[in-house]
Design goal:
44% of the residues are buried. With 291 residues, this protein is of the alpha/beta class. It has a single domain, classed as TIM Barrel, CATH 3.20.20. It has ten helices and ten strands. The protein starts with 16 loop residues before the first strand and ends in a 16-residue tail after the last helix. The structure holds iron/sulfur cluster. It comes from Syntrophothermus lipocalidus (strain DSM 12680 / TGB-C1).
Length: 291
């Protein structure tokens, strides 16, 4: 396998084979993100990706059960090319159970329902979607390149196609000023398509990103640990997503809040209330759970 630059993957793909299908991100404008800054986006030729899959087969044999195809927004590739790659991977690895990619709502929404069904039939199991927020003011401020309507449309299409959806909610990305509307409008959006997972990331400034500069200059204010937990509390209170798994599977979070809706809602709220009794100065990122 040949890799270019830093290869990012969600924690839940820790045991997956990683095969880069794209290099960089076709959007590359989110103000909080530094992952692919300075990398010119390109899609690798299908034959090159297939050659990497053959290399993995030589190295690992038949025993690959899960493949994640980075980099950012691999879903932007032509449907016929993705179908070819996924089908080829399934031929090579007879025990393959899961194929996943990153896909922002804007790029997923460009696919027709028929495209998404074809991808599902070719083996696509799950999309990791960085929604970040369902609030249009927040989305616009962070230059996410999507609107809440696009997030809903993409989510509904994926659900209809039977592709699992892992949504990422960025705690604190609206700052204290927009925290409440960020949580309430995100719940409103998520309730309309009911993702399989809602995964929390708590915003922590990273160098080489515009929002880091805004944070350093005082233009953007971070939530305190208690404010971050209160924001998660408000989101969970407003979620009406039966069956959705909520998880804090990332080191950026101050506390591990995990449970299935609706049966674990009260337990998660109690857990948050307990965490809120702990002095902020001692709150640190929590151990993570992989799902
Ligand atoms: S957050 Fe995702 S869509 Fe936004 S710039 Fe980073 S990789 Fe691209």
């Amino acid at each position: 396998m040949r890799y270019e630059g830093v290869v990012y993957r969600p924690p839940s793909e820790a045991n997956s084979l990683l095969i880069q299908a794209t290099i960089g991100c076709p959007h590359n404008k989110c103000t909080f993100c530094s992952m692919y800054k300075g990398t010119k986006f390109r899609i690798r030729p299908v034959e090159e990706i297939k050659a990497d899959l053959r290399m993995a087969k030589i190295y690992y044999g038949d025993w690959i059960k899960s493949i994640f195809f980075p980099d950012g927004n691999t879903i932007i590739m032509k449907t016929k090319d993705l179908v070819e790659i996924f089908s080829y991977a399934r031929q090579l690895f007879p025990f393959l159970e899961r194929i996943t990619v990153y896909g922002s709502a804007r790029f997923v929404d460009k696919k027709s329902l028929e495209d998404l069904i074809a991808l599902k039939e070719a083996g696509l199991s799950r999309i990791h979607m960085g929604m970040e927020s369902g609030d249009d003011t927040v989305l616009s401020r962070i230059c996410k390149g999507t609107t809440s309507d696009q997030i809903i449309s993409a989510g509904l299409k994926l659900k209809q196609a039977g592709v699992e959806l892992s949504e990422y909610y960025l705690v604190g990305i609206g700052g204290p000023e927009l925290s409440e509307q960020h949580a309430i409008n995100s719940a409103r959006v998520l309730n309309q398509f009911i993702p399989d997972f809602i995964r929390f990331r708590t915003y922590q400034p990273v160098q080489n990103s515009p929002l880091y500069e805004q944070y350093i200059s005082g233009e953007f204010e971070l939530l305190t640990p208690h404010q971050a937990l209160q924001e998660i509390r408000l989101l969970i209170e407003n979620l009406d997503c039966p069956g959705t798994m909520v998880t804090s599977d990332h080191v950026s979070n101050y506390w591990n809040i995990t449970g299935r809706l609706p049966q674990d809602r009260e337990a998660m709220l109690q857990e948050i209330d307990y965490a809120l009794t702990i002095p902020e100065s001692t709150l640190r990122p929590a151990p993570i759970t992989h799902l």
